[in-house]
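Known limitations

Structure tokens in this collection are predictions and should be treated as such. Users comparing against experimental data should check residue numbering before alignment. To illustrate the layout, the record for histidine kinase is reproduced below. The input appears on top and the generated tokens appear beneath it.
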Amino acid sequence: MNVPPAPEPNEAAAGPKPGGPPQGGPSQGGSSQGGLPPGGPPAGAPPGTGRATPPPPGRTRGAFLADLHALPGRVSVRLRLTLLYGLLFFLAGGMLLIVTYLLVADILSNIDVGVYGVATSEQLEHLRQEFIQQTMRQLIGRSLLALAGVGVIALVLGYFVADRALAPLQKMTTTARQLSESTLHERIALEGPEDEIKELADTFDAMLERLGQAFDSQRRFVANASHELRTPLAINRTLLEVALGDPEASEDLKAVGRTLLATNARHERLIEGLLLLARSERELTSWSPADLAEVAAKVLETLGKRTDGPEVTVHTELTEGRAMGDPVLLEHLVSNLVDNAIKHNVENGEVFVRTGVLDGFAACQVENTGPVVPAYEVDRLFEPFRRLHTDRIESAKGAGLGLSIVRSVVRAHRGTVYATPRPGGGLIVTARVPLAL
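Generated tokens:
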């Protein structure tokens, strides 16, 4: 493997950037530094950037009624509650207006009208009816204006009341969106009266507690099992090395011993990968700044001494990207990305390692030549023991945990990782973690 000397952290390398910007990267609206090409949304993201589809011509009455029936499902709960409050207010106001109308009409019907001078009974009745009609018209008009004005105020107040009532649900939604395997310790811890919303929040917290215990139990089992398996594998390796070092051993015995030693080494790598995977899925207890450029330079220096795998040329473009997290796990993140790019490459292939700042995150991007990767296979590659076109075979290239460890480390740092197929074959993997303040 040919690794050129890494540039200084603040100095971009002059290495080429084949493949152009990855089509599955972050949104193009963000800023990027350090030579990391921005791209579009990750593969599999819902479309939302194309042109709006025009409505079909000649809509029928049935389609209009269907849209009308589906309208309540498209309106937010806050708006529905506001409209409900307003509707109830207008209904109550209308009923109050009707009752007031009837009471005033009854009162006015018992009033006698008198005039100065001489008037007949017919004239007095005419004047009384005209007085009642004018009074009722003014009462209805002014009451409707008052109802409309107070109704608008009631709608505005209803909106704020609904927002206030839904605030605990919004808090629950925000907490649920932030949850991952490494943040199951977070709780809603809603304070307030013992009502239905408080009961729902407490039930949600209890569910998170059970999930956290289940995940912790699984991680402990993997870690304990891996620790228990390391000792017999180390003993087997020692016995095989002693047997291979025996000068009286036959060539056939040595051939079998070398095969068993290689198999034992693969098992040891598998156990180490499971231990690292279990560790990376835990919550980080300590956070410290680490420059991804320095981490990548150290990883490339270590991997440059290896002799196995295909002969590839590594191009580097390392610029400063100070991340906040666990430096050891970040080193494993970069190491697994580069190691995966080298193993799943072609003879005389190329690997491009870039670090820097992308969309406000410290980022490391590794691009490699290799076999063509279908777009529908990309997401599966991040699952444990998954390989391209296979599930659990062809273990000579590794245990199938490389990208799974990368994803777990990134999630533990509350970052994101995505991959896109490279034009012409290969893969472009970009990992982003929070910047150090």
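For this record: Helices lie at 61-74, 77-109, 121-178, 196-244, 251-280, 292-303, 327-343, 402-412. Residues 299 and 335 are 6 Å apart (CA to CA). Please report discrepancies through the issue tracker.
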